[in-house]
Amino acid sequence: MRNYLVALAIVSLASSTLVAQQRLVPDWQVRVNQSMPLLGHRNWILIVDSAYPLQSSPGVETIETNASHFDVLRFVLGAINSSIHVRPLIYMDKELPFVSDDDAPGASAYRTQVAQMLADYTIESIPHERVIAQVVETSKQFHVLVLKTTMTIPYSSVFIRLDCKYWSADAERRMRSRIH
Q1: Reported pTM
Q2: pLDDT, tens only, 63-73
Q3: Which CATH number fits domain 26-179: 2.60.120.230, 3.40.50.12780, 3.90.800.10, 3.40.1650.10?
Q4: How many CB atoms lie within 10 A of CB 86?
Q5: What's the chain's average pLDDT?
């Protein structure tokens, strides 16, 4: 009986510790970690401002993070970079450099900080409507994970299209040329 009580106490303590640890990790981080092994090339992860619309396409999953834009971006890039299977292709709105501090206080500081955070990546700037059209088209066949942040600067969203980490575009072209 005593062994039973000791075992019960250990199980109870372990489960309460696990529950406490799970509460420390925000739900959006849990969802990103759960999604990463399932996501592959052609999937997208969007880190968006607070006014980004809720999309109705069935392939789009939107999560309100209640977190800062940079915290979410840092976490997502870390998750992608530590994966074995995907790498980020980063797109940003072409309009962002033209957003003034007079119209959107903090826009210049945001541009500086996001440029520093993304310094190791190639960023393709394309018009907002074009990147949205790409996301909409992709969501017809592939999953798009949208993470809304507390950001209040327009055109500040970071659009990440996932690509295969272990197979490059050059390797694909070489293989295709051998087929034909």
Answers
A1: 0.84
A2: 999 999 999 99
A3: 3.40.1650.10
A4: 24
A5: 91
